[in-house]
Amino acid sequence: MTMPGPDKKERTFSVLLRVEPEGGFTVRVPALPEIVTYGKDEEEAVAMAKEAIELSVESRTERGEEVPDNGIVLVRSVTITIPG
Q1: pTM exceeding the 0.90 threshold for the entire prediction
Q2: CA-wise closest residue to 31 among 67, 59, 55
Q3: Domain range list for the chain
Q4: pLDDT digits (tens, 9 = 90+) for 48-77
Q5: What is the CATH number of domain 12-84?
Q6: 18 within 8 A of 7, measured Cβ to Cβ
Q7: What is the DSSP letter of 75?
Q8: Which of 7, 35, 42, 78 is most buried, with most CB under 10 Å away?
């Protein structure tokens, strides 16, 4: 693993993987809402997320925009009854 240089910081982002009925995973990054990507399996989905995060951070940095912190991401399931 390469350590970041003195002018760089490591940042961890939460990613949400949604299993798609046709197969694969759709990936969202709560801290970077512009990111929506896909992978045919979990490994590819996470790799695509990493690439998308790197591109988003690079773009935001070039435009002088803030790179948001990951924040606290809580994922919960809610079960409902559907009539019919």
Answers
A1: no
A2: 67
A3: 12-84
A4: 999 999 999 999 999 999 999 888 888 899
A5: 3.30.160.250
A6: no
A7: -
A8: 35
